[in-house]
Amino acid sequence: MAKQKSKRIYPIFIPFTGCRFRCSFCNQWASSGVSQDEYRKKIEQSFDFLMHSEKKYDEVSIYGGTPLWSGTGWDIMERLQPFVESGKVGGVRLSTRPDSITPDIIQKLVDLHVTTVEIGIQSLSDKVLQCVNRGHTVADVERAISLLHDSGIDVIGQFMIGLPCEGEEIYDIPGWAWKHNIAGVRIFPLIVLENTEIASWYKEGKYKPLDVDEAVYKLARIVRQLEEYDIPVIQIGLHSSKELQKAVLAGPYVGNLGEMVRSFINFMLVNEGKIKEDDVPVSQRRMFDRWRRVIQRGNT
After folding, report:
1. pLDDT digits (tens, 9 = 90+) for 14-65
2. C-alpha distances in angstroms, 129 versus 34, 37, 65, 139, 159?
3. pTM
4. Nearest residue to 256 via CA among 229, 286, 232
5. Cβ–Cβ under 8 Å, residues 238 and 26
6. Cα Rg for the chain, rounded, in angstroms?
7. CB 157 within 8 A of CB 179
8. Structural domains of the chain, ranges and CATH numbers in brackets
């Protein structure tokens, strides 16, 4: 499958209505940051906008929740069909778990003009997936990707770093993503949120999250190689919200994480003589002294 370039995407956010698993790091209510009633209102506003807008979109993306385990998700896909058939919308994008992808589900997705599926992969280690109660294996991920690709559906991979039991396998992400024709990547450091199992581990001293410098260093290595493979990185770190900020207990939660990662990548490129420091945005150059200290500490 071709790597995805920039698309015109219209987002529709759906509420979290439950999940068959409770991953150790997950507090979906906090990370979504919107109440059920607000979601319903915004969904109707989205359809009203699509109805009256003259703009065309490559995809409408269903974000949040678990669309394939939610009546709301399927209902939205059905309601989008007239927009696809009229040419106003090119296709539908959604996110889901790898173990929700079956041949029967695939056929429904094809019938509903789904063109991209974002898969919550999180880790390439079965040990890590088990540690965080993810409920699926790497083999499940690869099977889901194969089914989607065989049906002509693009796959975006969602990954995390800083997970319990994690090792050097995080640096395998770029090569693995290239091998499996991943069209784009979202990547997040684990943030410890209240009311999660990991929050309990953190309070008991059983889990230590990455600090900001560690997260930036690791993310920069991964993001740089992904882009060398021509795999677009479409998100680095969680989007901030008041609700999420209230729930953060520990971890590298900063509003400009993506900019920091870009700064570190450019810092490496300058040191390697591949670009000139003057070509780096001033806002990123201001962080270079910090990255020099990170390298000198040698604790990453």
Report:
1. 766 555 656 666 666 555 555 667 778 889 999 999 999 999 999 999 987 6
2. 28, 33, 20, 11, 11
3. 0.89
4. 286
5. no
6. 20
7. no
8. 9-254 (3.20.20.70), 256-300 (no CATH)
